[in-house]
Amino acid sequence: MRKKIGLALVGALAVTGAVLAYNTVTFEPAGLADASDIRLAGPIEPDANAAAQRLGAAIRFQTISNQDPARNRMDEWSGFQAWLQTTYPAAHQAMQREIVGTASLLYRWQGSDPSLQPIILMGHQDVVPVTPGTEKDWRHPPFAGVVADGAVWGRGAIDDKGSLIALFEGLELLAASGFKPKRTIIVVSGHDEEVGGTGAQAAAAKLKAEGVKALFTLDEGSAIITDAPIVNGPAIMIAVAEKGYATLRVTARAPGGHSSMPPAEIGTVTLAKAITAIHADQFPTRLDQPAFGTVQALAAEKGGFMKVVAANPWLFGGLIKSQMAGTPAGAAQLHTTIAPTMLQGSPKENVLPQDAFGLINYRLAPWDRSADIMARAKAAVGDLPVEFSWEREPREASPVSSTRSQGWKLLRAAAEAEAPGAPVAPFMVVGGTDSRYLKEVSQDTYRFQAMQLSTKETAMIHGTNEHISVDNLARMIRFFTRLVATAAG
């Protein structure tokens, strides 16, 4: 009997080993097209130092989106837009320009072949405020637009005036060279991306009414990460999706009264129990797209044991998930996240609250919907006497864009030219971009900036000492000129 069991175990191990070996040898990232059939246009080398000075000038316009719109200085937007027209005359002569919404810009560079789907390129005008009192922590004043130490310093250098100026630099170079596009080029530049994106919504509504269906839309959101996980080196991370956004209000009603005579159950205690229960019931992690596509692409490049793991998720799926979930950023790729962020009870310390409420912020994975959130929260609290409502209408997760389409291949080819030999991987943005509003007027939507950043450097976005290297600015300008010349030429 023991001998038979031993032989059975040996046989099982042999079969397992054979399956592992076969899957590994034949493994290729699923559905990930290369760009071998794209004839990439040659680069137009920019004057990077002159472009850096112009980006510095753009930063000096304080197009700050405050949480209270009444504090916004709209003259800064009008000044910035007039500056764009003066600074990039050839591009503005080639394109039709109109203002949509409050102060968003919509440009069209008409192509000669109306049968070709247009492309949409995006970059927003507004920036987030600098936290009061932190100005002294900046190496250079945040709105001085200083060019020093090989970089342009200031709020918006990366998010997102760097991209917007790089785009206009590229369009100016093309227009000045006499370039005539066959495919129409549409530029959407929102004025309020940082506080909801009403301008991008207005642009999307106008394009939809006109029946526009673009080949692809490209916005900010990811980059060439120089220390990407798994490969521990450069990787071109092209975001093919972004998570949804929802904020749930949980309210506990109570009689109120004086705190010296508290009842057995207080509204704040009920609320605390409810929020604790909701937070404890986390959404399960899933090894699904696009997160698993990221793992597959990078593991294929890494080779060795990582390739074995990625090629055999039937055996190593749990290991992959546990490793990714080891950091908050990795875990966020695998499930809908739950983050209680605000609590409010009584307006005074010795008064029992009549209404206690909390806000829970969710970032929805592509496979979950806001209805799932509501149902899960209600089930988690059981019979606790609380009420639920949405703080505002939830935004569902974006569709996952193709990694086999012509748009994907065009982006991949232009990106690979700026990081030769680096692997290309799909990615998911856990925050939000204006591009989410363009999904109905675009076949695919991608989020990528052709700059090289380490994971540590990404922390300066919305933070202190935001800056972009002159080399990265030149990289983005070359990327845009090549992309437009290839896609529309």
Strand content: 15-25%
Major β-sheet strand ordering = 1-2-6-3-7-17
CATH superfamily label of the largest domain? Zn peptidases
The description of the largest β-sheet is: 6 strands, mixed
Describe what you observe in this structure.
This protein has 489 residues and is α/β, with parallel strands linked by helices. It has two domains: 48-223 and 398-413 and 427-488, 3-Layer(aba) Sandwich (Aminopeptidase); 241-390, 2-Layer Sandwich (Alpha-Beta Plaits). The protein is built from 14 helices and 19 strands. The protein has helices spanning 2-25, 48-59, 74-87, 89-94, 161-176, 198-209, 267-280, 291-302, 304-311, 313-324, 328-332, 370-381, 406-416, 470-488, and strands at 96-100, 104-109, 119-122, 147-148, 151-153, 185-189, 216-219, 224-228, 233-242, 244-253, 257-258, 337-344, 351-352, 355-364, 386-390, 424-429, 445-447, 452-453, 467-469. The chain has a six-stranded mixed β-sheet with strand order 1-2-6-3-7-17. A four-stranded mixed β-sheet has the order 16-9-8-18. The chain has a four-stranded antiparallel β-sheet with strand order 12-14-10-15, covered by helices on one side. A hairpin with a 3-residue loop joins strand 1 and strand 2. The longest helix is centred in the N-terminal third of the chain and has 24 residues, at 2-25. The chain is globular and about 80 Å long.
